[in-house]
Task: inverse folding
């Protein structure tokens, strides 16, 4: 009986050791590259200096450990913000700032280019641990697939 019990425990340890544990880390550079090279955008957003992203999103730079922002020419609402916050509290502040940016964009585009509003309303706004991801694309479903597979 003892041999069976030890063999059983050994088998469980081997099985558990071989299971992959999902990582809480997101490779923002790779994710940005996948998004911008996809066909999800009518107009490919351009990578912009983070200081511009901080200003447009009203984000405090000290809340970010890593950040990347892509913007369209302004004729569309398409943009990407990929941010790793410096801590959990900062991630909450960044997520709230992104929500404010989306609300501002909806108000702006309602009069400017109203056909962009549905894109904004269907955009991906996602928080996972320290990571905050925002993506507004022409094909938001395609963008979501890329985001949630990373």
Result:
């Amino acid at each position: 009986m003892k041999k069976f019990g030890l063999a059983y425990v050994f088998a469980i340890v081997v099985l558990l050791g071989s299971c992959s544990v999902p990582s809480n880390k997101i490779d923002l550079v790779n994710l940005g590259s996948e998004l911008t090279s996809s066909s999800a955008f009518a107009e490919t957003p351009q990578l912009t200096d983070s200081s511009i992203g901080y200003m447009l999103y009203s984000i405090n730079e000290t809340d970010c450990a890593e950040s990347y922002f892509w913007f369209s020419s302004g004729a569309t609402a398409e943009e990407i913000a990929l941010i790793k916050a410096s801590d959990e509290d900062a991630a909450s502040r960044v997520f709230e700032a992104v929500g404010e940016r989306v609300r501002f964009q909806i108000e702006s585009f309602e009069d400017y280019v109203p056909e962009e509003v549905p894109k904004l309303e269907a955009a991906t706004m996602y928080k996972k641990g320290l990571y905050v991801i925002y993506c507004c694309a022409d094909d938001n479903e395609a963008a979501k697939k890329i985001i949630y597979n990373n």
Observations:
- The longest strand covers residues 64-71.
- Helices lie at 2-18, 28-36, 50-57, 88-112, 117-121, 140-148.
